[in-house]
């Protein structure tokens, strides 16, 4: 009898049998991949190379997404293979990753996108706590926010990087959609809105228009704010949908951020930064002996231009050593081992009190 039934359709049981057979093949291939990954890990250890290679990971994901025929969505291909690589990475070397918690923060989401579900995640209550965990060696990597497209730099992260002891190893940009989360039935029932300072700032205009009477309270994280909203029906939190789902608090109003293109740049911190890829960025902190001297900062920045380097970002932070002095932080295109970048850092060292490379790492594709 033909596989087709009288109506010309393939019987359901037959289709399911085919799927089961394909799943068996996929599982066999995953086992074979895992064996090869273990051989690669042994070669890396012998050569003194890092186990996690974000550059190779990104190239692999891009290649596979480009080969898709269209039946399986490219974004789903990336999600599936990220989990495969995460599981294989765990086989090579268990990875403990610290992040700004609790569970459900945007930093937690960024960490999961970077390392997958197989990572061993350690939540910290503060950004400084993430840095301390990496410096002590309690974890291999940390994930922290460094910059928001609406509100600018996350100063706590910048200051901790200036303090040293860790370097940026990778960056990841996530679109941030903030929601108003509450057990209240209407906006009129809300008298307090809680969130991380960045979350409140990203929704400043919306809150002014829709909840002008509400008191705004800072929390250590957006997920912690959701916990507070869960405990009080007159309190709302500004947070992401993941935190709302994890803590069982309804979303009263979605997408309340002031800018539709609101995004946050997160960085992976480690004791060592990344190897050169040909498409890198280097973050540098420097302090000038007397920045009040006419043209002092201009001369420092001209060094990068003299080496034909593009500056992608510059900011200043108050010095921890003396009042009214500043540490300047710049992002320059290129790796610290590139001849042009190394030459610029050498020249900068001749006029600066202190120059600190806070990381060379692959640039996030635009």
Q: What is the class of the largest domain in the CATH system?
A: Alpha Beta
Shape: globular
Describe the sheet with the most strands.
6 strands, mixed
What is the rounded distance between the termini? 56 Å
Count of helical segments? Answer: 12
Question: What percentage of amino acids are in beta strands?
Answer: 15-25%
Give the full name of the CATH homologous superfamily of the largest domain. Answer: Periplasmic binding protein-like II
Tell me the Rg in angstroms: 24 Å
* Helix percent band: 40-55%
Output the structural class. Answer: alpha/beta
- Low-confidence stretches at least 5 residues in length (pLDDT < 50)? 1-5
Shape-level CATH architecture of the largest domain: 3-Layer(aba) Sandwich
Which whole number gives the mean pLDDT?
88
Instruction: Please count the beta strands (DSSP E, at least 2 residues each).
Output: 15
- What count of domains describes the coordinates? 4
Secondary-structure element string: HHHEHEHEEHEEEHHEHEHEEEHEEHE
Q: Write down the CATH topology of the largest domain.
A: D-Maltodextrin-Binding Protein, domain 2
């Amino acid at each position: 009898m033909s596989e087709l039934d009288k109506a010309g359709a393939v019987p359901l049981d037959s289709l399911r049998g085919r799927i089961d057979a394909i799943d068996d093949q996929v599982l066999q291939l995953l086992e074979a991949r895992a064996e090869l990954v273990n051989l690669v890990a042994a070669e890396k250890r012998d050569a003194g190379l890092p186990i996690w290679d974000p550059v190779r990971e990104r190239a692999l994901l891009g290649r596979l997404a480009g080969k898709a025929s269209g039946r399986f969505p490219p974004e789903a291909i990336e999600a599936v293979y990220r989990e495969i690589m995460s599981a294989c990475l765990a086989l090579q070397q268990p990875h403990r990753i610290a992040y700004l918690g609790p569970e459900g923060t945007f930093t937690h989401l960024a960490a999961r996108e970077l390392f997958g579900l197989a990572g061993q995640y350690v939540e910290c209550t503060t950004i400084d706590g993430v840095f301390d965990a990496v410096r002590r060696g309690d974890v291999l990597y940390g994930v922290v926010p460094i910059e928001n497209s609406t509100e600018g730099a996350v100063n706590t992260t910048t200051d901790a990087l200036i303090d040293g002891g860790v370097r940026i190893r990778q960056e990841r940009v996530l679109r941030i959609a903030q929601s108003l989360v509450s057990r209240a039935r209407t906006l009129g029932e809300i008298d307090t809105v809680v969130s991380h300072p960045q979350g409140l700032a990203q929704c400043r205009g919306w809150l002014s228009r829709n909840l002008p009477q509400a008191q705004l309270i800072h929390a250590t994280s957006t997920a912690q704010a959701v916990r507070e909203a869960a405990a009080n029906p007159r309190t709302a939190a500004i947070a992401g949908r993941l935190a709302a789902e994890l803590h069982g608090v309804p979303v009263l109003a979605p997408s309340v951020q002031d800018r539709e293109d609101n995004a946050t740049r997160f960085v992976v911190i480690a004791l060592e930064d990344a190897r050169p890829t040909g498409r890198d960025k280097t973050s540098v902190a420097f302090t000038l002996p007397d920045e009040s001297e006419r043209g002092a900062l201009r001369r420092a920045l001209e060094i990068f231009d003299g080496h034909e380097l593009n500056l992608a970002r510059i900011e200043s932070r108050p010095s921890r050593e003396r009042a009214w002095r500043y540490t300047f932080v710049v992002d320059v295109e290129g790796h610290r081992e590139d001849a042009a970048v190394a030459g610029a850092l050498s020249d900068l060292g001749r006029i600066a009190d202190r120059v600190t490379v806070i990381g060379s790492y692959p640039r996030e594709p635009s």
